[in-house]
């Protein structure tokens, strides 16, 4: 697995991340979703630099132009529900991509320990394509790995997979580096060192799904 942390380079991306972390700014759910969407666009632009390109001819009103455009067949996937604004941002740059969705959530037992459930998955054919999986928070890595395995089981083997996770824990990065194959890249905007006993990232930003769409009952 290759790791790319865009937050290590000074850019406007860091301003969007700062707003997402700010507990005062977080009160505006539209702004939170907008910032996630912006991050998706930035990640998509950076991922576009890694794709395969060839020169095509484009007819203009006055002649023919030679333009180099990407050849990869793309599928953009997200883990519901926090990843939806991120997904939309990526899709706005890769408008012809296929789409996949998977529901993965923590299920706590009486001892307050959790396991991850994946109950819903819909995906187009993935074999030979470039897969992008978007999830806002990467705490333990369990949800992302299960989602990846489920997508491959249902859709086939992609040629390459990009994981887009704006906020990640150093623990999860280490887990994924040991678990994912060579044809994968993890893209992030910030890596936080602390993970609590309940597997929450510190400083993190809180529950991304609740911040984007409101609190849930369970």
Overview of this structure, please?
It is built from 6 helices and 14 strands. The chain is 32% helix and 33% strand. With 218 residues, it is an alpha/beta fold.
The main sheet orders its strands as 1-11-9-7-4-5-6
The strand count comes to 14
Summarize the amount of helix as a percent range: 25-40%
> What's the order of the H and E elements?
EHHEEEHEEEEHEEHEEEEH
Oligomer: single chain
Structural class of the helix and strand makeup?
Answer: alpha/beta
Sheet having the most strands: 7 strands, mixed
Determine Rg (CA atoms, Å).
18 Å
The parts where pLDDT drops under 50 for at least 5 residues are: none
Distance between the termini: 34 Å
Question: What fraction strand?
Answer: 25-35%
Mean of pLDDT: 93
Helical element count?
6
Shape: globular
Brief overview:
The chain has 218 residues and is an alpha/beta fold.
Secondary structure: elements and pairs:
Elements: E1 2-5, H1 13-21, H2 29-48, E2 53-59, E3 64-70, E4 74-80, H3 84-93, E5 98-108, E6 114-122, E7 130-134, E8 137-138, H4 142-155, E9 160-164, E10 167-169, H5 170-179, E11 184-188, E12 190-192, E13 194-195, E14 201-202, H6 208-213
Parallel strand pairs: 1-11, 4-5, 4-7, 7-9, 8-10, 9-11, 10-12
Antiparallel strand pairs: 2-3, 5-6, 13-14
């Amino acid at each position: 697995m290759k790791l790319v942390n865009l937050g290590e380079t000074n850019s406007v991306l860091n301003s969007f991340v700062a707003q997402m972390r700010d507990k005062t700014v977080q009160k505006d759910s539209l702004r939170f979703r907008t910032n996630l969407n912006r991050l998706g666009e930035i990640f998509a632009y950076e991922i576009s630099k890694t794709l395969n390109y060839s020169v095509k001819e484009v007819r203009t009103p006055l002649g023919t132009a030679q333009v180099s455009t990407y050849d990869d067949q793309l599928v953009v996937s997200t883990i519901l529900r926090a990843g939806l604004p991120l997904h939309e941002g990526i899709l706005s740059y890769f408008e012809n991509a296929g789409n996949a969705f998977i529901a993965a959530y923590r299920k706590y037992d009486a001892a307050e320990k959790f396991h991850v459930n994946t109950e819903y998955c819909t995906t187009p054919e993935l074999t030979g394509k470039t897969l992008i999986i978007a999830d806002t928070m990467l705490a333990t890595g369990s949800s992302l790995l299960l989602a990846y395995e489920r997508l491959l089981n249902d859709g086939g083997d992609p040629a390459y997979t990009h994981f887009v996770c704006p906020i990640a824990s150093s623990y999860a990065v280490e887990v994924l580096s040991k678990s994912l194959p060579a044809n994968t890249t993890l893209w992030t905007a910030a890596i936080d060192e602390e993970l609590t006993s309940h597997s929450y990232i510190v400083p993190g930003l809180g529950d991304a799904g609740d911040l984007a769409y409101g609190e849930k009952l369970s």
